[in-house]
């Protein structure tokens, strides 16, 4: 499955448009990740626990989007956009959404 943020794939003309597909992931951020992130914030540096959570959520959203495109008969998704949101009363949930257009390319 080809996945791209561009509206076309060079050298691969689009023969069929199947429509918009998306993948959504909502994951919780736990106390341990909050604690280790606060330590990184105090001493400087990057928060590996949050970065890993973002990477896993993004990959899961892209995978879900890809599966939905395959179910429609697509072999590519173009114009992909990835959005991140924080949810919950204490901002303890992370939502990642991947959206694009499922297409059939030659």
Describe this structure in words.
The protein is an alpha+beta fold. It has one domain: 2-Layer Sandwich (Translation Initiation Factor IF3), CATH 3.30.110. Helix content is 36%, strand content 40%. The protein has two helices and four strands; from the N terminus they run ββααββ. Strands 1-3-4-2 form a four-stranded mixed beta sheet. β3 and β4 form a beta hairpin. The radius of gyration is 17 Å and the shape is elongated. About 8% of the residues have low confidence.
Structural topology:
Blueprint lengths: L1 E2 L10 E15 L2 H13 L4 H25 L3 E12 L5 E13 L1
Parallel strand pairs: 1-3
Antiparallel strand pairs: 2-4, 3-4
- Quickly give the structural class: alpha+beta
Order of helices and strands: EEHHEE
Helix share bin: 25-40%
What percentage of amino acids are in beta strands? 35-45%
Number of strands: 4
Cα gyration radius (Å): 17 Å
Shape: elongated
Instruction: Compute the separation of the termini in Å.
Output: 12 Å
Count of the domains: 1
> CATH topology, anyone?
Translation Initiation Factor IF3
Query: Average pLDDT across residues?
Result: 85
What is the second-level CATH architecture?
2-Layer Sandwich
* CATH C-level category: Alpha Beta
Count of DSSP-assigned helices: 2
Main sheet summary: 4 strands, mixed
From the structure above, extract its key features.
106 residues, alpha+beta, Translation Initiation Factor IF3, four-stranded mixed beta sheet, 4 strands, 40% strand, elongated
């Amino acid at each position: 499955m080809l996945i791209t943020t561009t509206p076309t794939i060079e050298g691969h003309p689009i023969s069929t448009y199947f429509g918009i597909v998306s993948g959504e992931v909502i994951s919780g951020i736990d106390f341990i990740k909050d604690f280790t992130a606060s330590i990184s914030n105090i001493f400087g540096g990057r928060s590996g626990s949050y970065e890993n959570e973002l990477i896993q959520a993004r990959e899961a959203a892209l995978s879900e989007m890809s599966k939905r495109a395959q179910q429609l008969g697509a072999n590519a998704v173009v114009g992909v956009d990835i959005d991140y949101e924080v949810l919950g009363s204490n901002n303890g949930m992370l939502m990642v959404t991947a959206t694009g257009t499922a297409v059939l390319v030659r």
